[in-house]
Give the backbone structure.
Amino acid sequence: MTAAPSPEPVRPDRLDVRAVALGGGHGLAASLSALRHVVRDLTAVVTVADNGGSSGRLRHEFGALPPGDLRMALAALCGDDEWGQTWARVLQHRFRSEGEMHDHAVGNLLIVALWELLGGHVQGLDWVGRLLGAQGRVLPMAITPIDIAADVEGLDPADPTATVRVRGQVEVASTDGRVDAVVLEPHDPPACPEALAAIAVADWVVLGPGSWFTSVIPHLLVPDLRTALTSTRARVAVTLNLEPQTGETDGFTPEQHLEVLSAHAPDLRVDVVLADRRSVDDEAGLRHAAKALGAELVVADVAAGDGTPRHDPDKLADAYAQVMKQA
């Protein structure tokens, strides 16, 4: 049996930087997989609006925060050694059965169990991180579950321009209409105090990539979290997606992603916009859109080479390192 390892030594080439990455799901996991190789101090702040799958079932049954995006962030912070990679696979493992346990993720159950035993969301997540040897900390963006609601066009056949209110993270992410704007329900959920503290002392804040309306923008809709993001001394980087997301951002250009971000948080100052070279059709137009946010556009090769719309962790790490070194 493999013994629990000592924490992995900090790589000497990591930058002496405190970074906070915000998002959820696969997008946040991609940025964390890259950033853990780049910075010495890393905190993930994760959306808590998921209402589907294993997370939705646990949320409904126990009244807990949906653990799925938190689990994915913890798995992304696991080390590259045998211990870290084994625990990452355990966290992500889903049961397959004909019964009630079908499709539950092991990590979701572990996280909810620790919340029940320890009585605190942050304390429970910190214990999971210790077990995994996670190379960073994972925090929820709010300490109560929230729901996402969106104003969506194109759902009424009689009036395609009419706006319909769609509620629920899964429903918004999979809508057949065009999302115009999102809000949180409740509108003023209590932010996680530890997340606010991390942003206050950060050198860099990274938003994106990820589901734009359901993973990235929600951070800017929590009042105290938005205040922290708009007043932080940290430099702010926005990482754009490789392509529009079916349902949420069908037909969106990279410029439109930035315009939507600005519309939801016009007081957010952005320093850098990072985009993949092959995802940019109009570099001049995107540079102009970035400049409107006060940001420099950085175009780099950060996509996986297999043709899928995924960021390559090593390429993304190199891009983040170059951006942060030049600051």
